[in-house]
UniProtKB/TrEMBL annotation:
Entry EC number(s): 2.7.7.7, 4.2.99.18
Name of this chain's protein: DNA polymerase beta
Keyword Iron-sulfur: no
Catalytic activity, reaction form: a 5'-end 2'-deoxyribose-2'-deoxyribonucleotide-DNA = (2E,4S)-4-hydroxypenten-2-al-5-phosphate + a 5'-end 5'-phospho-2'-deoxyribonucleoside-DNA + H(+); 2'-deoxyribonucleotide-(2'-deoxyribose 5'-phosphate)-2'-deoxyribonucleotide-DNA = a 3'-end 2'-deoxyribonucleotide-(2,3-dehydro-2,3-deoxyribose 5'-phosphate)-DNA + a 5'-end 5'-phospho-2'-deoxyribonucleoside-DNA + H(+); DNA(n) + a 2'-deoxyribonucleoside 5'-triphosphate = DNA(n+1) + diphosphate
Organism classification: Bacteria, Candidatus Roizmaniibacteriota
Cited function: Repair polymerase that plays a key role in base-excision repair. During this process, the damaged base is excised by specific DNA glycosylases, the DNA backbone is nicked at the abasic site by an apurinic/apyrimidic (AP) endonuclease, and POLB removes 5'-deoxyribose-phosphate from the preincised AP site acting as a 5'-deoxyribose-phosphate lyase (5'-dRP lyase); through its DNA polymerase activity, it adds one nucleotide to the 3' end of the arising single-nucleotide gap.
């Protein structure tokens, strides 16, 4: 039987769990730190640890000492480490499930498991809920009502993330939608097609894919749809609608309509449900009823709409962009003609988060394409400035070696032949204690520093907040990249006191990134809206690792639009002079 080797993520979690048990048991600081450092090293490794082990180079990985290397060696040879299993057996298995909850650290997990006698992982959350209902958590020494509420809220967030696994990342859904639209557009009887629902509103994840189709011969369109080569199963094929299961497992529905009713169909099926309910309530007060066919007056006379703009205008309001339709006050603003002018692709003048293939010996993955090819793509997009923000050099290098690499990269940038302003930047890790892995001599060589979290995600709220603020405190640290460090459907965002972070950023000229990576979309829209209220500025970044990655910017724009951001809120919409003034202002 072939042995299954642990992935870097699995191995890092195991080592992190050992550190957690040592912390629960009150072991020495040095033991705890050794396993935390090893877990971080494994998680951050560009190469699979198994491959490094096969080359006999485990101890060459910064952060993995001789003793831990022996335990990893035993895991790869036999499938387990006797020492690690012995340590992990000292804590109930429920501790490790509790550690998956946002903001629950080792000491909290240990106390809950031991003092509430939580031993069954299958009923763990139900047992915690019952304990909270009886105020048993609040009754623990040092906890209180606030801690109890935070733990229950953390469980809700964890469950929500688990449920999202049944949905599809919007980036994946868009790729499928593009292929589908391309295929459907080859049908001569079809004149228009548009995505509906959460995909059109650009939510983080989507369920089924729904499309409105304009045609005068719906039967032909339905036949064309069900004949697609990527159909796994036809669920329904009626006169005006059809539904299939795509080979990926995603359900796709089409709804046909005539051009005269296209606008009202788009409005009705784009949603959201909450938006439409509020819209109907407003219409009813004016003796009107709304449907996918149009608007009826008190005498049941139907007015049809070929455009959504006409639909909204007939209700006395401005057209509401799909991304805003969540019943968060957009209807009232539309009636008052005070909707914000949402940011758009044409507003973007630069991209500050790009990884080239310059050999910086990074702590994480290196970009795939040259600076020249990336610049060519940026020029085609009409950008005025970009920043090459590779990951900082790995911590195994000396300060002198790191400085030499940064200076060498600057020299390469200075020789580039382009009219675009090109910045020498790095994405720098905020280490678990809030320090940065570069000294001041290296940092001052950079035009821009993006600080990001790439490890130690399970710190409690107080420690995580202190860590973030310390990382942002350096004058060169102008942007925090993917601030919550979430991976959609994989990892919850870190637990921090975001109000403190937002206040610090607003007061010190720091910007927060909205990262365009499909599994990040981070800062999430709810926190973007909150941060804007504090006066925080934002940067939209693609986190591109190849030239084509610059085309991901619309994903970040969608998050910004859902959070009602305008171009004035976003630094990389600014002209070069204004951008440089912010960039080199080191008041912080």
């Amino acid at each position: 039987m072939t042995q299954k080797y642990p992935s870097n993520q699995e191995l890092a979690q195991t080592l992190g769990n050992v550190a957690a048990v040592y912390e629960i048991m009150g072991e020495s600081f040095f033991k705890i730190r050794a396993y935390k450092n090893a877990a971080d090293a494994v998680e951050q490794s560009n190469e699979e640890i198994k491959d490094i082990w096969e080359k006999g180079a485990l101890q060459k990985v910064p952060g993995i000492g001789a003793s831990i290397a022996q335990h990893i060696d035993e895991i790869f040879k036999t499938g387990k480490s006797r020492h690690i299993e012995m340590v992990l057996a000292k804590a109930p298995v429920t501790v490790y499930k509790l550690l998956e909850l946002p903001g629950v650290g080792p000491k909290t997990a240990g106390r809950l498991a031991f003092e509430l006698k939580l031993s069954n992982p299958k009923t763990l959350f139900a047992d915690l809920k019952l304990a909270a209902d009886n105020n048993l958590i609040a009754g623990l020494e040092g906890f209180g009502q606030k801690s109890q509420d935070e733990i229950i809220e953390s469980i809700k967030r964890f469950k929500k993330t688990s449920k999202q696994e049944k949905r599809v990342l919007t980036s994946d859904a868009l790729a499928l939608a593009d292929r589908f639209v391309e295929y459907m557009s080859s049908c001569h009887e079809l004149s228009e097609i548009q995505a509906l629902g959460s995909l059109r509103r650009q939510k983080t994840t989507v369920g089924d894919l729904d499309f409105a189709v304009v045609t005068d011969i719906p039967g032909k369109v339905v036949e064309h749809f069900t004949s697609w080569g990527e159909v796994q199963k036809i669920l329904a094929a009626g006169e005006n609608t059809a539904r299939i299961i795509h080979v990926s497992g995603t359900q796709i529905d089409i709804k046909t309509t005539t051009k005269s009713m296209y606008g009202s169909m788009l409005q009705h099926f784009t949603g959201s449900k909450e938006h439409n309910v509020a819209l109907r309530e407003y219409a009813q007060k004016n003796n009107l009823s709304l449907s996918e066919k149009g608007i009826k007056d008190s005498k049941s006379k139907l007015t049809k709409f070929s455009s959504e703009k006409g639909f909204y205008n007939s209700l006395g309001m401005d057209f509401i962009p799909p991304e805003m339709r969540e019943n968060r006050g957009e209807i009232e603003l539309a009636l008052a003609h005070k909707l914000p002018k949402l940011v758009d692709q044409k507003d973007i003048r630069g991209d500050l988060h790009i990884h080239s293939n310059f050999p910086i010996e990074p702590s994480h993955d290196l970009g795939k394409d040259s600076m020249a090819s990336i610049i060519k793509q940026a020029e085609e997009l009409g950008y005025k400035y970009i920043a090459f923000s590779e990951h900082n050099p790995q911590k195994g290098l000396s300060n002198e070696e790191k400085l030499r690499l940064i200076v060498k990269k600057k020299a390469v940038i200075d020789k580039l032949n382009t009219d675009i302003v090109v910045l020498n930047s790095l994405e720098v890790d905020i280490l678990h204690d809030g320090t940065l892995p570069l000294d001041n001599k290296a940092l001052i060589q950079l035009d821009l520093v993006i600080v990001s979290l790439h490890s130690s995600f399970r710190q409690n709220k107080e420690d995580m907040t202190k860590r973030i603020l310390k990382g942002l405190s350096h004058p060169k640290a102008k942007v925090m990249g993917h601030p919550t460090a979430r991976l959609i459907q994989q990892r919850e965002g870190v637990d921090a006191d975001w109000s403190k972070v937002f206040r610090f950023c607003a007061e010190n000229g720091k910007a927060l990134e909205i990262n365009a990576s499909g599994d990040r979309l981070d800062l999430p829209e709810d926190l973007v809206k909150e941060a804007k209220e504090y006066g925080v500025m934002f940067v939209l970044g693609t986190d591109a690792h190849e030239a084509a990655g610059l085309m991901k910017m619309p994903a970040a724009i969608s998050v910004a639009r859902r959070a009602w951001l305008e171009s004035k809120d976003i630094i990389n919409t600014w002209p070069v002079d204004k951008f440089k003034k912010w960039l080199y202002d080191e008041k912080s």
